[in-house]
Every structure is written in structure tokens, then in C-alpha cells.
Hints:
Layout: H1 8-15, H2 32-35, H3 53-68, H4 72-84, H5 89-98, H6 101-108, H7 114-122, E1 126-128, E2 131-132, E3 145-148, H8 150-153, H9 156-164, E4 174-177, E5 182-185, H10 200-207
Antiparallel strand pairs: 1-2, 1-3, 3-5, 4-5
Helix pairs in contact: 3-10, 4-5, 5-10, 6-7
Amino acid sequence: MARYTGPKCRLCRREGEKLYLKGIKCYTDKCPFNKRRYPPGIHGKSSRRKITIYGMQLREKQKVKRIYGVLEGQFRRYFELARKMGGNIGENLLSILERRLDNVVYRLGFASSRSQARQLVTHGHVIVDGRKVNIPSYLVKPGQVITLKDKAKKFGFVQEALQEKDPNALPAWLSLDKDNYKGTILRMPIRSDITHPINERLIVELYSK
């Protein structure tokens, strides 16, 4: 399965903003982005290139792909699915990305980052409606219940992530029983549930050319 394995903080620097890809570390003074807020590469500090409309659209697409840990082929398939759903394509796209199982595990607070959540899923530690699901791209539906295997509940990073989880940060489309490591999908996610600054209109414009 293809995935990005390079330095995650380099991606934040390229997009010019924190994407919170390394979990708890991103909220501390140790985050490299705090020290180097310029793009990576030999010309990063001195680059004054004027960005075009296409460049803005491309950067927005890249940013969203990197936030959710999705590569180009899969992202384009999500876009086509969002187009066929009818209604606002950009909002449909974000709703699909939010429904990915690895993102749901992260949103529930079982992991401090999406990459950590992805690892939990691929290693078979996540249960959906009583069945093991090890596919990070699995799209959850309203009414489904997500839990962890007993072994995973004892993992230090899982307990630490839950302890650090702000109850007020839990999206309204999810509910969490922290004591039993159980989350429930209450409804489909909507645009207002996504707080990260994303301009999905630019992505729609890019793919509609």
C-alpha cells in the first residue's frame, strides 16, 4: 500500500501552516514548524515567487490530501464519488474524507494523529459493529459502533491520546464512551463539523477544469 514515509513536518512547512500530522508534538515548542516557517529546500528562505490561481488551487488540494493521508489516485476517486452524490461537491468530498475509518479513530481520540490511527486500523486493532476492519479507507455509516480490541486498550499511546483528548473537540456527529473505548456514528458529518481552515471550492475548481 503506497503512503508517504518522509518527514511529516516538511509537509507542514511546504503548505505554510500546521497540519497537525504528528499529534501531541505539534502542540509543543518542539514542533519544527515553529522554528522554520519557510518552505523546505535550498531556496525556501529566499523564495518570493508569486503564486497563481492554479497554484492556490493546487496547494489547497495538496493540503487536504496531506491532512487526511490520501494519495492522488484515491483522492480523485473520492472527488468523483462526491460529484455523483449531488449537491455541494466540495462539502460532499470533505464528508467522505471525514468518514474514513482512520480519521474516525483519530477523531474519537484513540490516537493522537491520523497516521497513528491508520496504524491501529491496519494492524487489526479496530472493531466495527463487532467485526475486525483493517482497511483505513473503510467509510463508516450512521449507527455503526467503533471499539478497540482488549489488547489495544492497554497500549500506552492509546491511553495517552484519550487522556489528552479535549471532550469539547469531539465532533457533533460522533459520541464517545471513554470508559469502554467505544464510539458511535450519530449522523453523517457536515461542513460545520470540520474546523481546519479548508477552502474546498478551490479543489472543485481545480478538478473541474
